[in-house]
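Throughout our pipeline, every protein is held as a single compact record rather than as scattered files. Nothing more is needed to write down the fold, since each code stands for a local backbone conformation. The record that follows is passed on verbatim for readers who wish to inspect the format.
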Amino acid sequence: MSSMVGAVETALMERLRRGLGKSVREVGSYRGQLDVEGIKQVVNAVPALFVGFAGHKNPRPHSARRDSVVMPATFTVFVVVRNIASEAAGRTGTSNAVGAYQLVEAVRRLIARQKLGLDIERFSVGPVQLLGHIKVGHSGLTAYGCSFETAWYEQMPAQDAWPLPDDPVFAGLDGARGEEPPDLLRIGALGDVDGLAELRNKEKG
């Protein structure tokens, strides 16, 4: 998969599937299952876990040349269970059904401090939020959103340059592509940038 976001999401789902096995009926990508229309399908597939990318927050430069960016990323695991006897039973569970609280803790222990075999920072634990008690016909669902934080580096094209032909992010996409600059040109460009930075520091002093 060319997208790092997609690769992380897939790895998270695989981790959850292997870690929880038959304890949950479905582990999948979040595609609006908690929306008005989607919830009608979810009621027959719980307990369920849905993984979604929540966004990048505060990307920052990584190198002095600013050609690499640290991309913090937040992923949310939606934990959805059925309220069999009551809302309280849906949260705490019963002798025959796993509860939301137990699943939230299980998800946390499966994901926290993991890199999932990818070139990313270890996942840290974020907020857990009650999304609501949802009435669906004669049944009710309880849903929680469990957030996890990671980050990775992304290399950006140089000024006025196009992405390289072998950039996996652009696989299957149309548009202009650049060429890998010869080593001597690349070294010269690095020298110019470093010299400019030094000059600016002197001016500030």
Remarks:
- The beta strands are 26-29, 48-56, 60-61, 68-82, 124-136, 139-155.
- The helical segments are 4-20, 39-42, 87-92, 100-111, 183-204.
